Amino acid sequence: MKKLYVPAETVKRLSLYLRNLRYLAKEGVEIISSDKLAQDIYVSPAQVRKDLSYFGDFGIRGVGYSVKLLIKEIQSILGLNKEWPVALIGVGRLGSALLNYPGFKEFGFRISIAFDSDLKKIGRIYQGIKIEDFSEIERIIKKENIKIAIITVPASAAQEIADRLVRAGIEAILNFSPRYLNIPENINIKTVDIATELESLVYYLTRG
Amino acid sequence: MKKLYVPAETVKRLSLYLRNLRYLAKEGVEIISSDKLAQDIYVSPAQVRKDLSYFGDFGIRGVGYSVKLLIKEIQSILGLNKEWPVALIGVGRLGSALLNYPGFKEFGFRISIAFDSDLKKIGRIYQGIKIEDFSEIERIIKKENIKIAIITVPASAAQEIADRLVRAGIEAILNFSPRYLNIPENINIKTVDIATELESLVYYLTRG
Question: pTM for this one?
Answer without folding.
Answer: 0.78
